[in-house]
Amino acid sequence: MNREQLFEQIKKKRSFLCVGLDSDILKIPAHLKETSDPIFAFNKEIIDATQDLCVAYKPNLAFYESLGVSGWESLEKTVHYIREKYPEQFIIADAKRGDIGNTSNLYARAFFDRMDFDAVTVAPYMGEDSVKPFMTYLDKWVILLALTSNKGAFDFQFIKNDENGEQLFETVLKTSQQWGTGDNMMYVVGATKAEKLEEIRTIVPDHFLLVPGVGAQGGSLQEVAKYGMNEQCGLLVNSSRGIIYASNDTDFAEKARAAAMEVQVDMEELLLEAELL
Ligand SMILES: O=C(O)c1cc(=O)[nH]c(=O)n1[C@@H]1O[C@H](COP(=O)(O)O)[C@@H](O)[C@H]1O
């Protein structure tokens, strides 16, 4: 999917919500555990219940890899199901990959050839040759970690370069713009660091940002939109636990829909305020 198509979906759905499919076998409702593929059964119901309220889904690979072969099968089935039934959805592999070029090539093959994801999250630490292999596919995206939502973000990401006074996350944003464009690269910026979005927008005014950290991590959607929205919206705001575990009973899908709708209604208001609708 390209940037224009993504913006079209945002306008059509009146939403820039990404639903995180962090589907934990220990947290899904008990009645699903009797089915042959509980994780897929859970995802399928969550997807059917939320697809008109969101523009993207983000399975986090850890939740699938932790189950071995069956987890990988659930993931493949989930991506296939979204592609077949809701082809307008943007699908992100939250895998946080990145390795020497030769190896990143194979990661890219896994997510873009073997499975039909639109985007993969990539760590910038190993530099250009670790990131570029993901950008050789038409209309596929790298989502590069820039400023993350967690406490550990303060360990490295704010370290200042003695020579130019730049913080590490700023250097990531600036340098990586030589590797890709706003048509094949997005950045992760945590909603818990929303106050930094104003500064970030001076460096990357046009790029889309994937913003996790609203809901369970306490980030503010309003703050994110205030400092981060651009003329194409430029935001995909992710919520995982806040939506998919709204209930862990037989009404889980219905409750997930209600939770997603609450976010979508706020997003619609923010899009209207920004005169994007
Ligand atoms: O790359 C990510 O998606 C990510 C980056 C980041 O800085 N913080 C962050 O929480 N995430 C992911 O976003 C999701 C957040 O989940 P909830 O906190 O349950 O909404 C998880 O899958 C995280 O791994």
From TrEMBL:
<dbReference type="GO" id="GO:0006207">
    <property type="term" value="P:'de novo' pyrimidine nucleobase biosynthetic process"/>
</dbReference>
<dbReference type="InterPro" id="IPR001754">
    <property type="entry name" value="OMPdeCOase_dom"/>
</dbReference>
<dbReference type="GO" id="GO:0004590">
    <property type="term" value="F:orotidine-5'-phosphate decarboxylase activity"/>
</dbReference>
<dbReference type="InterPro" id="IPR011060">
    <property type="entry name" value="RibuloseP-bd_barrel"/>
</dbReference>
<dbReference type="InterPro" id="IPR011995">
    <property type="entry name" value="OMPdecase_type-2"/>
</dbReference>
<keyword id="KW-0456">Lyase</keyword>
<keyword id="KW-0210">Decarboxylase</keyword>
<keyword id="KW-0665">Pyrimidine biosynthesis</keyword>
<comment type="pathway">
    <text>Pyrimidine metabolism; UMP biosynthesis via de novo pathway; UMP from orotate: step 2/2.</text>
</comment>
<dbReference type="Pfam" id="PF00215">
    <property type="entry name" value="OMPdecase"/>
</dbReference>
<feature type="active site" description="Proton donor">
    <location>
        <position position="96"/>
    </location>
</feature>
<dbReference type="GO" id="GO:0044205">
    <property type="term" value="P:'de novo' UMP biosynthetic process"/>
</dbReference>
<dbReference type="InterPro" id="IPR013785">
    <property type="entry name" value="Aldolase_TIM"/>
</dbReference>
<comment type="similarity">
    <text>Belongs to the OMP decarboxylase family. Type 2 subfamily.</text>
</comment>
<protein>
    <recommendedName>
        <fullName>Orotidine 5'-phosphate decarboxylase</fullName>
        <ecNumber>4.1.1.23</ecNumber>
    </recommendedName>
</protein>
<feature type="domain" description="Orotidine 5'-phosphate decarboxylase">
    <location>
        <begin position="16"/>
        <end position="256"/>
    </location>
</feature>
